[in-house]
Specification:
The complex is a heterodimer of chains A (353) and B (624).
Chain A (H helix, E strand, L loop, with lengths): L1 H30 L9 H26 L1 H4 L8 H32 L15 H29 L8 E8 L2 E5 L40 E4 L4 E7 L4 E5 L4 E5 L5 E5 L5 H8 L6 E5 L12 E6 L1 H10 L3 H4 L12 H8 L4 H7 L1
Parallel strand pairs in A: 1-4, 3-9
Antiparallel strand pairs in A: 1-2, 4-7, 5-6, 5-8, 8-9
Helix pairs in contact in A: 2-4, 4-5
Chain B lengths: L1 H9 L12 H6 L4 H31 L9 H4 L11 H37 L7 H21 L29 H30 L12 H32 L10 E2 L2 E2 L7 H35 L6 H14 L15 H13 L1 H15 L8 H23 L2 H7 L3 H31 L5 H27 L19 H31 L65 H13 L13
Antiparallel strand pairs in B: 1-2
Classes of the chains: A alpha+beta (353), B mainly alpha (624).
Chain lengths: 353, 624
């Protein structure tokens, strides 16, 4: 019943609007306004353009200033400052251009609106002026390019040899993290054909470096130490995005990528800064990857280096948690695997009993 | 004029043309460029409504994530879950199809297809396109492509849903997302047909502009619209084949077991045999078209705007040569900036530096164009027709959206902003809305020449103001959401505390989007009502200089009943000092305007005499 009433209402509204339109047309015919070259609407539109400018700029400045803290993210990595500097430098320069050009557009529109008997100024070109406004933007942009280039080459430069290596792998629809382990600090080799329900990373157990690798449920990072993320994907393209660290890099199946950065604030410090005791850093996905694209969240914990080392030391290796995979280790390396993986040799003890 | 007014009240229906085909050859399989243009326009409007509807549905999800939308079930069927929510995969299909439809079917075919076809012969003084038959094939290839794409919306596994950029492996593997099954196949078939249509059309536009200009119409006297259409066709001809090759390789990967884009994939519990392919290869091929595509949709809009701004400012366009030069420079640069879409794709960072440099250079010709528009308005005598308002709106969007391109073209800043809402805001303003406004501007301006009647101005004004304010309300807030780090193509943000603080702004955007979309109903009504019942137009209602306004009110087959007019001057002699009227059309020889000639133009008179001046007099009061 309610729907019927709404439908009738809509139909009536449309009829009323159509009738108004028709009456307007007839009035125009009688008054002959349609014969005028430029009617009173010209003034109204010119005024509206100016009004629009004031209202729009008012809203723009109001929201940008009042809600500044809501839409800007705090910085939590060493290179975040250089990206933000480039961003705000660009914002400053383009902001000025944005205001000036839009003001000219709307003010000219208002000021030079049609006047009966008026004429435009025949002004087809002015070479000096045109050269001027080719060169000034070119120089400004050159400055921006240089700022961007220096930040970019810094960020993408090679990671130092003692950087903390962490592997992150994207898959539908979550992130996996693998650490090189406490014994050899080298990530073990992998092969996608070895992946199965337990061996999510496709760890290659013929590689000795893999025995002490561990795969925790969340990512831990040390403060003030360079971290090298080794990034890969298992099925489709994903993209590692850590907004607070200004980190983003695609995870591509078949083509490992990497990103290096240095966290500068622990989770606790960031919680204090934001006044939010619940806050956690996270990784999320920024490349469309299917149904669960929006839900690929991984918790990231940044802690002081001692706490980080302690956390690392308590992590059980993947091989220890999946002892049945020992069978896949080549026989001559099995002993080494047991030692590196921290597996106590129960079989022999049992046998001797 | 009195007769025109009577026609409103009577609703005259006297649309008989002077050519004598039957219904099929006149309206369906027509080889007349004007009819083909109208076919493109109507198909474009149809697609715009579909594309807009899709966006409203996903804006409902983003603005009101908790709302029960089971009332959409009659329309969407099983894509509404039992809880009355939108299916997340269908959400991805919606954004994918919205992008595909708007970029290709509306802003490429609907804009460039309509106005290149309609204006090139009329403005250069030709009877028709170089090949009318190829032109017809071009439309029908587009029509077939439209049919296939339309069907893909209704299949059980859903339409393509890997984003409009269809990056493999997502688009290659039906296991990854259900839209990559039959939906993706249909998408690829439709796009292949679409590219065929673009190439047939493009060859024709280029051939026509080069070979069929009327006597005196040198390249330096071409209206900026034609320059824009010409360069657009060249860009399209060079870049669309690359998309076709990218699509073909993808078809091979999908159906014939090749590994161009696939490598080391474990999905759905099994390791695929493909090895050695590179997903990044696809991105290079795709963006080699994808970036020029931006200018394929934007240049025609800028060309149309130049024409409309000059006419309604009653002033010559400022810096004609600089305008042509900028477009040429943009067209060339558009081919060497594609990898700025791939700064964080894992490609070599050195390439990132090179592409940043090239990308930011493109801002220079764009800036020149903006300054030239502003100087054209300066000390003009502005008539705010609906077309003029849309042109001003375009310039505003071009500024606002163009400037954010300087952020994104900077690889360092792009690390943070890539694939966030900042990008969405950027390209919807500078490419989507600006080009859409160019299209609207063109429709309002050339409607009288297309249909012999005027559109209603007041409805045009209401349409403009709702759309103009609406577009800013939809896309401006997205900048803030993007700076805050919200990624694109997210079904919902409720998983993240940090990314869940803008639900009010998202709701605002959604409401604005619904209002903006609804405002288009006013346009649709105005458009169709005016075709049959609008006020009758005169031959040159805007007092414009270009050749199309020298044709009869409704040009018949062959465009000019008599001889094709010759051209003596550039198209922007508005408000020339000394002349009685404030416009001198292109076909008026200098010998007829001694009072306003510049010194070098007086010398031209001699030349005119040698060649024998022959002015085609057109009675612009006469109806058809």
């Amino acid at each position: 019943m309610f729907k019927v009433i709404i439908a009738i209402g809509v139909v009536l509204l449309v009829i009323i609007l159509l009738t108004l339109f028709r009456i307007g047309n007839l009035v125009n015919v009688v008054k002959g306004t349609s014969k005028e070259k430029v009617g009173s609407s010209n003034k109204i539109n010119a005024g509206l353009l100016l009004l629009f400018m004031f209202v729009a700029f008012g809203l723009f400045f109001w929201y940008s200033i009042v809600y500044f803290d809501d839409y800007t993210l705090p910085q939590a990595s060493a290179h975040a400052g250089s990206i933000d500097f480039a961003f705000w430098l660009t914002m400053g320069l383009t902001g000025i251009v944005f205001v000036i050009t839009n003001v000219l557009l709307f003010v000219f529109s208002f000021k030079y609106q049609y006047k009966e008997g008026g004429r435009g100024k025949f002004y087809p070109d002015n070479t000096k002026l045109e050269i001027l406004w080719t060169i000034v933007p070119a120089i400004t942009l050159a400055g921006l390019v240089l700022t961007g280039l220096s930040a970019w080459s810094n960020i993408t430069s090679k990671a130092s040899d003692d950087a903390e290596v962490v592997e992150v792998m994207g898959y539908q629809f979550a992130w996996g993290v693998r650490y090189p382990g406490n014994k050899d600090a080298e990530l073990g080799a992998y092969d996608y054909r070895l992946i199965d329900a337990s061996n999510q990373f496709g760890i290659d157990l013929s590689d000795e470096n893999s025995y002490d690798d561990f795969i925790p449920m969340e990512m831990h990072l040390p403060k003030d130490k360079e971290v090298l993320l080794k990034i890969r994907a298992r099925d489709v393209i994903h993209s590692v995005f850590m907004p607070h660290f200004r980190v983003k890099m695609d995870a591509v199946p078949g083509m490992p990528t990497h990103f290096k950065f240095t966290p500068t604030k622990t989770t606790q410090e960031m919680r204090d800064e934001l006044g939010d005791p619940e806050f956690d850093y996270f990784i999320t996905c920024t490349e469309i990857c299917g149904r669960g694209h929006f839900s690929m969240k991984l918790k990231v914990v940044v802690e002081e280096q001692e706490a980080y080392e302690a956390w690392k030391a308590e992590q059980a290796t993947w091989l220890k948690l999946n002892e049945d995979y020992l069978e896949k280790v080549p026989a001559e390396k099995r002993e080494l695997a047991r030692i590196k993986a921290g597996i106590e040799d129960n079989t022999e003890t049992e046998a001797s009993l | 004029m009195a007769t025109a007014d009577i026609h409103i009240t009577e609703g005259g229906h006297d649309h008989d043309h002077d050519h004598h085909g039957n219904f099929w050859t006149t309206y369906v399989f027509s080889t007349d460029h004007k009819m083909i243009a109208k076919q493109y326009l109507l198909t474009g409007i149809f697609w715009a409504l579909i594309g807009g509807t899709l966006s409203v549905i996903f804006r409902l999800q983003l603005g009101f994530p908790d709302a029960d939308i089971s009332w959409l079930e009659p329309l969407l069927g099983k894509w509404i879950t039992e809880q009355g929510k939108l299916d997340p995969e269908f959400y991805l299909a919606l954004v994918t199809m919205h992008g595909t439809i708007m970029v290709f079917f509306v802003l490429t075919a609907g804009l460039s297809g309509t106005f290149s076809n309609f204006l090139i012969p009329l403005q250069i003084g030709a009877r028709d396109m170089a090949s009318g038959f190829m032109n017809m094939l071009s439309y029908w290839a587009f029509f077939l492509s439209s049919v296939v794409m339309f069907i893909s919306l209704f299949i059980e596994t859903g339409p393509a849903s890997g984003g409009w950029v269809i990056y493999p492996p997502l688009s290659a593997l039906p296991q990854a997302v259900s839209g990559s099954g039959l939906g993706m196949t249909l998408w690829l078939v439709a796009m292949a047909l679409f590219i065929v249509s673009q190439l047939l059309g493009g060859v024709n536009y280029i051939a026509t502009v080069i070979n069929m200009r009327t006597h005196g119409m040198s390249f330096s006297k071409l209206p900026l619209t034609i320059w824009a259409f010409f360069l657009t066709a060249v860009i399209g001809l060079l870049s669309f084949p690359v998309l076709l090759s990218a699509a073909l390789l993808l078809i091979f990967d999908r159906s014939f077991g090749t590994s161009f884009y696939l490598s080391d994939i474990y999905i759905g519990g099994e390791a695929l045999p493909n090895q050695g392919g590179s997903p990044v290869l696809f991105q290079h091929l795709f963006w080699f078209l994808g970036h020029p595509e931006v200018y394929i949709v934007l240049l025609p809009a800028l060309g149309i705007t130049s024409e409309v701004v000059a006419t309604n400012s009653r002033k010559p366009i400022f810096g004609y040569k600089a305008m042509v030069g900028s477009m040429l420079f943009i067209a060339i640069l558009s081919f060497v900036v594609w990898a700025h879409h791939m700064f964080v794709s894992g490609m070599n960072p050195f390439l990132g530096s090179v592409f940043m440099l090239l990308t930011l250079i493109i801002a220079v010709p764009s800036a020149v164009k903006v300054f030239n528009y502003l100087t054209t308005l300066w000390r003009g005598n502005l008539r705010f027709t609906p077309a003029m308002l849309f042109a001003i709106g375009l310039v505003s969007f071009f500024i606002s959206g163009g400037l954010t391109g300087i952020f994104l073209g900077n690889s360092a800043i792009d690390i943070q902003l890539h694939d966030t809402y900042f990008v969405v805001a950027h390209f919807h303003l500078v490419m989507g809305s600006a080009s859409f406004f160019g299209m609207m501007c063109g429709i309002y301006h050339w409607f009288p020449k297309m249909f012999g009647r005027m559109m209603d101005n007041r409805l045009g004004y209401i349409h403009f103001w709702l759309t103009f304010a609406g577009v800013y309300m939809v896309f401006f807030p997205m900048h803030y959401i993007g700076i805050a780090g919200y990624p694109r193509r997210y079904y919902s943000f409720t998983n993240f505390d940090t990314l869940n603080s803008f639900s009010d702004l998202n709701m605002f955007v959604s409401i604005a989007a619904i209002i903006t979309f609804s405002a288009q109903v006013i346009f649709i009504f105005n458009f169709f009502h005016s075709i049959w019942r609008g006020r009758k137009a005169t031959a040159n209602p805007w007092e414009s200089n270009t050749l199309e306004w020298t044709t009869p009110v409704v040009p018949g087959h062959g465009n000019w009943p008599g001889e094709i007019p010759k051209v003596y001057r550039w198209p922007y002699d508005y408000s020339k000092p000394g002349s009685k009227e404030d416009f001198i059309p292109q076909h008026i020889p200098f010998s007829m305007t001694p009072e306003s000639n510049l010194p070098h133009e007086n010398e031209m008179i001699k030349l005119e005499k040698e060649e024998g001046v022959n002015v085609v007099v057109v009675d612009d009061r006469k109806g058809h």
